[in-house]
Design goal:
17 helices, 16 strands, 44% helix, alpha/beta, Spore Coat Polysaccharide Biosynthesis Protein SpsA, Chain A, seven-stranded mixed beta sheet
Length: 573
């Protein structure tokens, strides 16, 4: 199942799993229609509702059919056999995505949730569209004491499983799911199909880096309420689920550290300064052809010893080929493997050296669809270039020289900018490329970049690596057939700087340097009240262009880490 289109604006729906709750569900929805909830109560403007009939009896099935016939805002998904609450919710989430919704607000059919809180949960989801929004139950005297105190057993389990107290309540079925990240999880893992689902999905989403936010909500237990909770069977199932989760956590904390997903910035640097100096010496001594001969044993060493990087390369190539095959896209006629991917990276480093030395002239660079660049030549100005780790971003230097030695400033989020700047000075003292090292983009950085843009310089940002200090602040966008986390920061910064934004992809195709210089926005607009809806659209637009060019040059994307998941050791909030 494909994830929902992240380019869509915030589009939520109600999701109600139902198993023989026909009368209670009818009373609940009819009561909601009769009560004011801050929006017009008619079929045209009501929140769309998806009911999942989980193999109900004939009486409930008839009531649901009548309910759908009366209200055009209700859609019915009927399952032929009972799958359990979790199974019904999973099917409902997939159906909601297929219908074009971005979020699904789950609530129980037995009437225990306060529908007056629906607008509050949706407002929170609109403000934090990447988070899982959940109700935090506030009980009255109707709650059975056994259930009330029994929940604390689950709380302790969850605290152990997450090593935190952030999950205040994992059993409340009144929650808003972000469909992109949730379906990504469901595509990767098989989860419990019954009463164990609510807790397991929340814990695993938390492990995957999805923020969980809670709002207090009143929960009642109707005197005539129908519960399908089997004390012995479901408690046994939940206990087994907690046992598995705790064991996974313990294994991860002990033997699993070598397989942990590290943030790209925390991946140990391999080669360091001596490697760069050696590479430069080989280039100066033996020239380009001699450098290429030295490249094979060096790349072979890094390929053999780089287990994480090799695994990430293989995963990326498999995803790309599967995506292309599913859509009938013809990939370039070349052999693809993780070793060839590594080798292409080494060749790109050779091109990078040539670019730093000024040996790549702008005449050697072919501009594809260069109307935007020609317009920039006619009216030189400071521009913001949104790049990636696809191909050679330094080719923008060759382009900038045709505008009269325009200075290019590249923002880097590692601790190596000073070392690279020294190397650049050694290679070419006249290089008009300046690396600006930052750990976090603050007001000082924004002011500095604004000054450079006003001076007519270029500022280069990359949009395909998460923040070093704020990893969880991401937008999940569909990329090569699966949700992937893209950083918010470059797009928010671009909007704050107010400069024209272009995309740049520098690829080596058929022995030539080809640069795709594409207009992205004359000026990004991200008003605070519209940010939640506008930002995912911008990120998805960027992801689609990156995807387009990855399919054109599969071996030229150099992100050698698990791109589709957040790291296992992120601590930012």
């Amino acid at each position: 199942m494909m994830a929902p289109d992240s380019s869509l604006a915030f589009r939520p729906c109600l999701l109600i799993p139902c198993y023989n709750h026909g009368p209670a569900l009818v009373r609940m929805l009819d009561g909601w229609l009769a009560a004011p909830h801050g929006e017009s109560q008619d079929d045209e403007t009501l929140l769309p509702c998806l009911i999942v009939d989980d193999g109900s009896c004939a009486e409930t099935a008839q009531l649901l059919d009548e309910l759908v016939a009366r209200h055009g805002w209700i859609t019915l998904l009927r399952l032929p056999l009972n799958q359990g609450k979790g199974g019904a919710v999973i099917q409902g989430l997939r159906q909601a995505a297929a219908l074009g919704f971005t979020h699904a607000l789950q609530l129980d059919a037995d009437g225990q949730h306060d529908l007056a809180d629906v607008p509050r949960l949706l407002a929170e989801a609109r403000e934090y569209p990447q988070a899982l929004i959940s109700g935090a139950p506030v009980y009255d005297e109707s709650v059975p004491k056994g259930r009330f105190y029994g929940r604390y057993v689950t709380h302790v389990w969850v605290w152990l499983e997450t090593s935190s107290f952030e999950i205040r309540d994992s059993m409340c079925g009144f929650r808003v799911y972000p469909l992109a990240s949730t379906l990504g999880l469901l595509d990767r893992r098989s989860l419990g199909q019954r009463m164990d689902f609510d807790t397991e999905v929340m814990v695993r989403l938390y492990w995957a880096g999805v923020a969980v936010r809670f709002l207090p909500t009143r929960v009642i237990y109707p005197p005539d309420g129908l519960s399908h909770f089997d004390v012995w069977r479901d408690n046994l199932r939940i206990s087994w689920m907690h046992t598995r989760l705790v064991c996974e956590r313990m294994l991860d904390l002990t033997w699993g550290r070598c397989r942990r997903r590290l943030h790209w910035s925390r991946t140990p640097e391999r080669g360091a300064q001596w490697g760069l100096n050696f590479m430069l010496w080989c280039y100066d001594t033996f020239g380009r052809r001699g450098f290429q001969l030295c490249l094979y044993p060096v790349i072979a060493y890094f390929w053999l010893t780089g287990v994480r990087q090799r695994r990430a390369s293989t995963d990326y190539l498999q995803r790309l080929e599967k995506f292309a095959a599913a859509r009938g896209i013809t990939l370039p006629a070349e052999r693809r493997s993780s070793f060839r991917h590594f080798l292409r990276f080494g060749e790109a480093m050779l091109d990078k050296l040539a670019g730093w030395r000024g040996e790549i002239r702008h005449e050697q660079v072919e501009l594809i669809d260069n109307g935007a660049y020609q317009a920039l030549q006619e009216r030189p100005q400071g521009v913001l270039v949104l790049g990636s780790h696809l191909g050679d971003l330094e080719l923008c230097r060759a382009l900038s020289r045709s505008l009269g030695q325009v200075t290019v400033n590249a923002l880097v989020f590692t601790d190596h900018a000073e070392r690279f700047n020294r190397l650049l000075q050694a290679v070419n003292p006249q290089a008009n490329l300046q690396l600006i090292q930052v750990r976090e983009v603050g007001p000082e950085t924004a002011i500095l970049l604004k000054e450079k843009l006003e001076a007519g310089e270029w500022v280069v940002l990359v949009g395909d690596r998460t923040s070093v200090t704020r990893e969880k602040r991401v937008i999940w966008a569909d990329f090569l057939g699966a949700p992937a986390p893209f950083p918010q920061g470059p797009f928010i910064l671009a909007a704050a700087l107010g400069a024209p934004v272009y995309l740049l992809f520098g690829l080596r195709e058929q022995g030539r340097f080809r640069v795709y210089f594409e207009p992205f926005a004359a000026q990004l607009q991200l008003l605070r009240r519209e940010r939640a809806a506008a930002l995912p659209q911008l990120v998805q637009q960027y992801a689609e262009r990156l995807q387009h060019h990855c399919l054109k040059a599969p071996l030229d994307w150099f992100n050698f880490f698990d791109f589709w998941h957040l790291s296992d050791d992120n601590t930012d909030k």
